[in-house]
Every structure is written in C-alpha cells, then in structure tokens.
C-alpha cells in the first residue's frame, strides 16, 4: 500500500508557497501526494515533479472536466473535440509530473445535468475516449482511475454497479476506477459488497470521511472497508481526501462552508496514524 494525501486540502493549484506543507506530509510518513491538475501547463508539473522527487514523494494526480463546453460525452462534434483535447492535456501534464495514477471524474463536467441518466450514446462516447486514454497510459506506464461521484455532483457514474460495467466496457488493463468512500457512503447500501463487486477494477482507494474531515472522526466504517479492500487483494494507492473551507475556489464544488479540521498538521498526522493502523489491523 502506498499512502498519500490529496492536495486539494491545500489548494486547487499547487505552487511554491505550498511546498513547506508538502514537506511536512513527507516528514509524517506519507509515500506520495495526489496533485490536483486543473490548470497550468506541462512545464509547471515537470517542475513540481522534480521538487517532489527531492522530497522522496511519489506522484499521483486528480483531474476533472471543468466546462460543459469541453465535454467529451457531448453529441456536438465541436464540443466533443474540445473535450478530447482536454483529456489529452490531462495526460500531457501527468507524463510531465511523473504520475503513477491519474484519477478523478474526467468523464463529465461536475454539476452539469441533463435531466436523465447517461444515454447509451454518451456511454459509448465515453468508452471510446477513455479507451484511447488507457492505450496512451499503458504505453507510458501509469494507471487511470476514473472516479464515481454522488448523484448531486454528476449523473454519469454514481454506483459500483455502473462503474464495474463501465470499466468492463473500456476493457483495458490501464483503466480502472477510483473508489471513494464519501460518494459510496451516499450511493451504496453496503460498502463492502460494493467493493467486492468492483474487485480488481479498483485502481485507487480514496478514504474520505462522511463530513469530508479527518478520517476516523465520523460515521464511516473504515475498518470494515479496509478489511474488504485487503480481501480483494488490492495493495495500491490509498489516498486521504479531506476538504476545508480555506480553499474558496473549491467551496462551490464541494459545498464545504465551514472548517472540517483544526489545522493541516492535525489532519495529516491523525489521518496518517488512523489509516496505517487500520490497514495493518486488517
């Protein structure tokens, strides 16, 4: 298991000013960080990769589809072309950063709804786009981990039944699913059963508390979840995901309007210890 932190708890775009906090993440004993790649160019992420190398931290990545005008699922050829160009940019940055995994909801714009579930045409367009991404990822030696979101954030991919079926249709070893305990807590009746259904299609495990705060302080049964994950044989990237009100650019997307942890050091230390202990106990 490689334990990491999703850096969206710091900012939506990681710059020089965030490096001292990332150094603290390394000191506490994390193995990698999951970098938000939402804007910027490949040169910026190449620079960041070198700095993370110097700290001894591995790299993962989370990315989104930011705009309905660049939606890879669209039936409008021009919109879809812009969407596919955005997916290519995601991979340009991943290769510059040296990402081992590329996760996130890079399927449909967050908060964009059509009034119904995904159509067969949308699913087929997504499968085609993500299979092309997987072929490129396979050539460059990293994994894709598409993230399901709850029904209030997307209509495209909500449950593990949908996620497993979608990954089976993409049908490429470099393509899998990012399982997120926060979203699953909303959408699944039984998280262990959902994890077993996903099985070997899990490429990244996001551990996120029901309130998006410090892991272990809320209602989610992480012991049962981690035990089931280990039973499936998963031993890959495990990521702490927490959000705070201190990142205004994310507040509208995450609906976080209040502090969910007292400070970053407490978040990093306490979550690290809970996750390591829970993983070993399982």
From TrEMBL:
On the tree of life, the source organism's domain of life is: Bacteria
Keyword flag Lipid metabolism: no
Q: What terms describe the molecular function in GO for this protein?
A: isomerase activity
Spell out the Pfam families in the cross-references. Answer: AP_endonuc_2
Arranged from A to Z, the UniProt key words for this protein are: Isomerase
Under SUPFAM superfamilies, the record lists: Xylose isomerase-like
Q: Which InterPro entries match?
A: IolE/XylAMocC-like, Xyl_isomerase-like_sf, Xyl_isomerase-like_TIM-brl
Protein name, please? Sugar phosphate isomerase/epimerase
Q: What species is this protein from?
A: Wenxinia marina DSM 24838
């Amino acid at each position: 298991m490689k334990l990491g932190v999703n850096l969206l708890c710091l900012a939506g775009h990681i710059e020089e000013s965030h490096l001292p906090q990332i150094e603290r993440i390394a000191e506490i004993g994390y193995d990698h960080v999951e970098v938000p790649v939402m804007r910027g160019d490949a040169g910026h992420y190449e620079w960041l990769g070198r700095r993370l190398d110097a700290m001894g931290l591995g790299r993962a990545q989370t990315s989104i589809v930011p705009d309905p005008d660049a939606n890879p699922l669209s039936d409008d050829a021009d919109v879809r072309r812009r969407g596919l160009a955005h997916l290519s940019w995601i991979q340009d940055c991943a290769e510059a950063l040296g990402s081992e995994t590329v996760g996130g909801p890079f399927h449909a714009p967050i908060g964009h709804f059509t009034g119904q579930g995904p159509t067969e045409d949308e699913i087929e367009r997504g499968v085609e786009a993500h299979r092309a991404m997987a072929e490129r990822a396979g050539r460059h030696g990293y994994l894709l981990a598409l993230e399901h979101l709850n029904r209030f954030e997307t209509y495209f991919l909500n449950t593990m039944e949908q996620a497993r079926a979608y990954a089976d249709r993409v049908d490429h070893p470099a393509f899998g699913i990012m399982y997120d305990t926060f979203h699953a807590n909303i959408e699944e009746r039984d998280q262990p059963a959902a994890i077993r259904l996903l099985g070997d299609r899990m490429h990244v495990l996001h551990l996120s508390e029901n309130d998006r705060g410090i892991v272990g302080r809320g209602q989610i049964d992480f012991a049962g979840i981690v035990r089931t994950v280990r039973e499936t044989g998963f031993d890959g990237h495990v990521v702490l995901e927490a959000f705070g009100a201190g990142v205004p650019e994310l507040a509208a997307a995450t609906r976080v309007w209040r502090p969910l942890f007292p400070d970053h050091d407490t978040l990093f230390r306490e979550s690290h210890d809970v996750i390591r202990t829970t993983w070993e106990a399982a």
